[in-house]
Design a protein that fits this description.
Shape of chain A: globular
Distance between the termini of chain A: 26 Å
Low-confidence stretches of chain A: none
Strand order of the largest sheet of chain A: 1-2
Largest sheet of chain B: 2 strands, antiparallel
Mean pLDDT of chain A: 93
Largest sheet of chain A: 2 strands, antiparallel
Shape of chain B: globular
Structural class of chain B: mainly alpha
Number of helices of chain B: 6
Largest interface: A-B, 25 and 24 residues
Order of helices and strands of chain A: HHHEEH
Strand content of chain A: 5-15%
Oligomer: heterodimer
Distance between the termini of chain B: 57 Å
Helix content of chain A: 55-70%
Chain lengths: ~110, ~130
């Protein structure tokens, strides 16, 4: 991904992480792997972790520590009610942006 | 209530120190490449000032959590920090700080040291663009 994609992704990655969590609870490594499999190949696991810390601090997810076979317990994140509301807002903003950008593209043809 | 006050003061002085020592011990226990990466990130994070009401020890404990888990999973250092470690560390630091002054020299050093930790000696010291 080029610099343009990185810059655009910056503002949407938090919403993307919440959207992934809306399908099922997951831990950081799983979310990163899921995104990489779907073409977000340059996503750093640390960046996803940093965003998970953020959404946890903002009260958008619930966290459960699950014992792991290898290493320390894993933090499993699940979207809570507040997170779902936040995600609804994210998609509304997304719809607004994409609709306006599409208008702009049509207009410039 | 001198006892309570003393406890409060002691907790303030000794608490952070104990947490810091515990964090340092956890970092020492990491495999070498992970430890080198954490050391480099720690140096860079020192340039950021904590937010009001946020204990900066938490930031370092969260950093240790990330690298311990990644080491257990066998995630390579490069996959943790990405191609642009500065971007990752800034995103991470935003949780605990109001930003900081990160001169070019410090950014180059972070990139160089993380490259070394990731076993990439061919990379230039330039800031990543990806």
């Amino acid at each position: 991904m080029g610099n343009q994609a990185t810059e655009m992704l910056k503002g949407t990655l938090e919403g993307i992480v919440l959207a992934v969590l809306s399908t099922r609870p997951a831990y950081g490594y799983e979310i990163t792997a899921w995104l990489r499999d779907r073409g977000f190949t340059d996503i750093a696991e640390g960046t996803i972790y940093a965003l998970l810390v953020r959404v946890e601090r903002n009260g958008l997810v619930d966290v459960e520590k699950v014992p792991s076979e290898k290493g320390p317990p894993r933090k499993v994140y699940s979207l809570n009610t507040q997170g779902r509301e936040y995600l609804t807002g994210f998609w509304k903003t997304w719809d607004f942006l994409t609709a306006r950008l599409e208008q702009l593209r049509e207009g410039s043809k | 209530m001198p006892d309570t006050d003393d406890n409060g003061i002691l907790a303030k002085i000794i608490g952070p120190k104990k947490r810091w020592r515990a964090y340092k011990a956890r970092v020492r226990a990491l495999p070498e490449d992970y430890r080198l990466a954490v050391d480099a990130i720690e140096r860079f994070l020192m340039l950021f000032a904590p937010k009001d009401g946020v204990r900066i020890e938490t930031q370092f404990e969260d950093l240790a959590d990330l690298f311990e888990q990644a080491a257990a999973d066998g995630t390579p250092v490069r996959d943790i920090v990405g191609n642009d470690p500065v971007e990752f560390v800034r995103t991470f630091a935003e949780n605990y700080t109001d930003g900081g002054y990160t001169p070019a020299r410090a950014r180059h050093r972070l990139i160089r040291d993380v490259n070394r930790a990731a076993g990439d000696t061919t990379g230039a010291d330039d800031e990543g663009t990806v």
